[in-house]
Design a protein that fits this description.
mainly beta, Immunoglobulin-like, 4-stranded antiparallel β-sheet, 11% helix, 31% strand
Length: 147
């Protein structure tokens, strides 16, 4: 008899499998992101320093001219499309796991960013947005002397 490592999540997946296929259950690495009006959403990393915010979005296989960045009412939106490759004559696909179609992601920006100075760089399927912060008015402290 062969011993197997027990994985409780695998049992849950198997039990919910008929439902998870239609809703793309998160355990399956699914599209649980907000993809309103799009087919998929790129994964992002968001970081912050004292001077800026940085958003890095994975958009592999997409040309930089196919990505649109828009800012409206303190909301930064990324839109684009990953076009499906044409199937060549005599070529059969056995598995297609990459996402195709339109994508969209939106992020609410805080009040302390300079929207006019946002920079975007695109290299090797990674879109990097640098969002500089503005100087926040420092609170003025007044010392009260008791007489």
């Amino acid at each position: 008899m062969k011993l197997a490592k027990w994985d409780p999540f695998r049992e849950m997946e198997e039990m919910l499998d008929p439902y998870s296929k239609t809703s793309d259950w998160p355990f399956r690495g699914g599209r649980s992101l907000n993809t309103k009006g799009s087919d998929w959403a790129p994964r992002v990393d968001i970081s912050e320093t004292d001077a800026e915010f940085c958003i890095k979005a994975e958009v592999p296989g997409i040309k930089s001219e196919d990505v649109k960045i828009k800012i409206e009412d303190h909301v930064l939106s990324l839109h684009g499309e990953n076009k499906r490759e044409k199937e060549e004559k005599g070529e059969k696909y056995h598995r297609i796991e990459r996402y195709y179609g339109s994508f969209s992601r939106s992020f609410s920006l805080p009040e302390n960013v300079d929207e006019e100075k946002i920079e975007a760089k695109f290299k090797d399927g990674l879109l990097t947005l640098t969002i500089p912060k503005t100087e926040v008015a420092k609170a003025k402290t007044i010392e009260v002397k008791v007489k």
